[in-house]
Write a structure and sequence with these properties.
Elements lengths: L33 E2 L1 H4 L2 H5 L2 E5 L5 E5 L10 E8 L2 E16 L2 E4 L2 E3 L5 E4 L4 E7 L2 E8 L2 E9 L5 E10 L4 E13 L16 E5 L2 E5 L7 E6 L20 E13 L1 H5 L5 E14 L4 E7 L8 H18 L1 H5 L4 H16 L1 E3 L9 E3 L2 E2 L6 H13 L4 H12 L25 H16 L2 H20 L6 E2 L6 E2 L13 E2 L2 E2 L6 E2 H20 L5 H13 L4 E2 L4 E2 L2 E4 L7 E3 L7 H5 L7 H14 L1 E2 L2 E3 L16 H7 L5 E2 L3 H12 L2 H13 L12 E2 L7 E2 L3 E2 H16 L1
Antiparallel strand pairs: 1-9, 2-3, 3-4, 4-5, 5-6, 5-13, 7-8, 9-10, 10-11, 11-12, 12-19, 13-18, 14-15, 15-16, 16-19, 17-18, 20-21, 22-37, 23-24, 25-26, 27-30, 28-29, 30-31, 32-33, 33-34, 34-35, 35-36
Helix pairs in contact: 6-18, 7-8, 7-9, 7-18, 8-9, 9-10, 9-11, 10-11, 11-12, 14-16, 16-17, 16-18, 17-18
Length: 719
């Protein structure tokens, strides 16, 4: 049933004003992401655009431009209670009511399970923009112009929501209803009914509202800063206007918020949230009011200082990436590259370790991914080296070395408590490539020396054999891996016991990475004054054997060699997939120039889209052109035609390697760069439909998609 709501208010329509009477709003510097009233007041358009702010420890806040929550992952404080894990939704939303004179304007927007949209505050949004990564709304209601900003304190589970009255002929009253929760961010809350209704403890503690969901839960706090001072003047009655913010404790469940995208994904599509407190304050023109949500009882209430601190921090992130940004040809790409530099920063998160409290990791994607070994190593060069922050790359490379086990790095770390999982054949191989690019950028021999023994163990374990039948085939020096029920490459979808793309055998990109790793180790050994013989000989042998990947019939590479159960002895998988592009882009000279051209050409013809490469060519058995439906349907399509944005960078570099046409390579990247205002605002999506119009799907912000575009962009700009 819908939430208990007051009788429907007589919400006033946005007033029509003459140019003379329209309040003037001070504009900030131009933003790479800026939407006008046409997009903001179109519910469908504004719900399709999602904003994201992060805190550098795995926590985040996110929502739609419209203000409605379309996912279970939308909320104002998703705290990482054990950074970067145990992400927990604590604050869902704030329902704002602006009162001016006798008029009331509800600025929030909610969808309900009944199909109702109420209130409809999106109709008052006159503009939306990103100030760095900080979302900024401008509402016009009656004669009032109100700005709202949301940001997080870096390094803390703390969110700030700030309201500033820019224009109004008279003071306004702002009422803020705080809706809270306490659940794992993958789940939904159903509070039950009396006598079994979930009761949280809500109490006033030292000028804070403290919420404790249950006895062993982490308490969290709601604070409201009194409006910033302005010159006091009496109102028409001669009374001085109070600027204090009052608080009223509540405990009322609002039921059946509807998450439209979760219904599309075949998941639980509604939940309840608890009205915990109501704040009221009077604002005059020029005043600001800040609400703070935090697990820290001592979190600052100084909205001005907190905002300035975050703006300065973001400016510094862009400043160190100046070479990347200023190399862009004109202001349009420059502002979008700057925006992606800030997007790159959102994926970097703390992961402290014994003896390394400042350890770092990379969140693979928002909203639902944690840190994954493969994604981290692929994304690391673009997120850190291309953006001028090699010290972060070093922290991540050292941190992951602590998790080496049987010559393997973890595939992923559970978001809740648990041990890392090692079901990956390529995360460890991408580790070599990440270290190679780090050393090329920094010439940091001390760190290389520290990691060299780790890399030596990895090579030995792969030669001798490790988990999941991963081993070097003594017959040809190529790397083999996999078995029943195992999905080890990046094409890792699995539904129950069904592995959608098993790729057991000798996958093409795995062996390109293996040969590159051996070549890299030889180079590292020489740099450190060690013998390279143990790496050069197996490298040369595997390089010679790589010729077996060439499919003369199709004039491209086999995707996997020696696939078991293929119907023929040592059969090969001839499916046209994008993995062979890495055999060109890794620059390991594994194919002849003519073969490299053939690979690039067939991938351009069959797999290339404006936003990435299809994971399987149309016309191949099993091709699925739309990523939709419930979990089984989506997993079945995940690597069976779905477009992956991260592959665009390697393709652009492979194309340049073959054709030496920098402008053409840039042209492949431009559509993605132009798309940062259409889905995840200021960032890039995980995947897209294989069929036109290639709608964005999956995570709104994906680390390796952003990283590989930045890495390729930097490489091409430096030429």
């Amino acid at each position: 049933m819908p939430a208990p709501r007051k009788p429907k208010s007589k919400r006033q329509a946005p007033a029509t004003k003459s140019k003379a009477s329209k309040p003037k709003v001070k504009l900030s510097a131009p933003s790479a992401i800026s939407l006008g009233p046409e997009a903001c007041t179109d519910l469908a358009a504004s719900e399709q655009r999602e904003w994201l702010v992060t805190n550098g420890i795995g926590g985040f806040a996110s929502g739609t431009v419209a203000g409605s929550a379309t996912r279970r992952y939308h909320g104002l404080l998703i705290a990482a209670l054990d950074p970067p894990a145990r992400r927990t939704l604590l604050v869902g939303s704030v329902d704002e009511i602006l009162r001016i004179g006798e008029q009331s304007f509800e600025l929030a927007t909610h969808r309900w399970l009944s199909g109702t949209v109420a209130p409809e505050g999106y109709k008052y949004i006159q503009s939306f923009r990103l100030d760095g990564t900080i979302p900024v709304w401008t509402y016009e209601a009656g004669q009032a112009v109100l700005e709202k900003r949301i940001w997080m304190q870096h390094g803390e589970n703390t969110t700030f929501v700030r309201y500033t009255l820019f224009g109004s002929a008279s003071p306004i009253e702002l009422e803020l209803k705080i809706l809270v929760n306490y659940r794992d961010f993958h789940s939904s809350t159903h509070a039950g009914f009396a006598p079994n209704e979930w009761r949280m403890r809500i109490e006033a503690v030292e000028n804070n509202v403290c919420v404790t969901a249950f006895d062993v839960a982490t308490p969290f706090y709601i604070k409201c800063q009194a409006p910033t001072p302005v010159i006091r003047r009496p109102d028409s009655s001669g009374r001085r206007i109070s600027t204090e913010a009052s608080a009223e404790l509540q405990h009322v469940w609002y039921r059946d918020f509807f998450f439209s995208l979760e219904r599309q994904r075949g998941l639980d599509d509604h939940e309840d949230q608890l009205l915990a407190a109501v704040f009221r304050a009077r604002l005059e023109r020029g005043q600001s009011l800040t609400v703070v949500f935090s697990i820290d009882a001592n979190a600052t209430l100084d909205g001005d200082a907190a905002l300035n601190e975050e703006q300065v921090r973001q400016a510094a992130v862009v400043a160190v990436a100046t070479p990347l940004v200023t190399l862009s040809k004109n202001q349009g790409p420059r502002s979008r590259i700057s925006q992606l530099v800030l997007a790159a920063d959102q994926f970097v998160a703390a992961r402290s370790l014994p003896g390394q409290p400042d350890g770092k990791t990379i969140i693979a994607g928002y909203h639902w991914f944690g840190d994954w070994g493969r994604d981290t190593m692929i994304a690391l060069p673009g997120l850190t080296l291309a953006t001028g922050r090699p010290e972060i790359a070093k922290q991540i490379l050292l941190a992951f070395s602590h998790f080496l086990d049987r010559g393997m790095l973890p595939n992923n770390f559970p978001d809740a408590y648990g041990t890392p999982e090692y079901n990956t054949i390529d995360a460890t191989l991408w580790y070599f490539e990440a270290i190679r690019q780090y050393f090329a950028a920094t010439n940091d021999a001390a760190t290389l020396s520290q990691l060299f023994s780790v890399l030596t163990q990895i090579i030995e374990s792969h030669v001798n054999g490790t988990r999941y039948n991963i081993h070097v085939d003594p017959a040809d020096g190529l790397l083999y891996g996999g078995g029943p029920g195992a999905q080890l490459t990046w094409m890792d979808a699995k539904v129950g016991d069904w592995v959608v793309t098993p790729r057991t055998g000798k996958p093409v990109e795995i062996n390109a990475l293996w040969i590159k790793a051996l070549e890299t180790m030889s180079s590292f050994a020489n740099a450190l004054g060690e013998s390279s013989e143990n790496y050069m000989r197996p490298c040369q042998r595997a390089r010679t054997s790589f010729a077996k990947f060439w499919n003369h019939q199709r004039d491209c590479c086999f995707d996997v060699l020696e696939v078991p159960g293929s119907g023929a002895r040592n059969g090969n998988d001839a499916s046209l997939r994008p993995n062979q592009v890495l055999a060109v882009s890794l620059n390991a000279n594994l194919l002849t120039p003519a073969q490299q051209k053939a690979v690039v050409d067939i991938c351009a013809k069959e797999l290339l889209t404006p936003f990435g490469l299809r994971s399987l060519a149309p016309g191949e058995p099993g091709y699925t052109g739309a990523y939709s439906g419930g979990p089984r349907e989506r997993d079945a399509a995940y690597h069976q035609g779905t477009v992956w944005g991260w592959l665009l960078g390697p393709f652009a570099l492979a194309h340049y390697r073959v054709y030496r046409d920098r402008d053409a390579a840039f042209a492949f990247l431009q559509p993605s760069l132009d798309s940062i205002d259409r889905y995840g605002l200021g960032t890039l999506a995980e995947i897209y439909d294989g069929d036109p119009p290639h709608s964005p799907r999956g995570c709104i912000a994906q680390a390796w998609t952003v990283a590989e575009l930045l890495r390729a962009w930097q490489y091409l700009q430096r030429l």
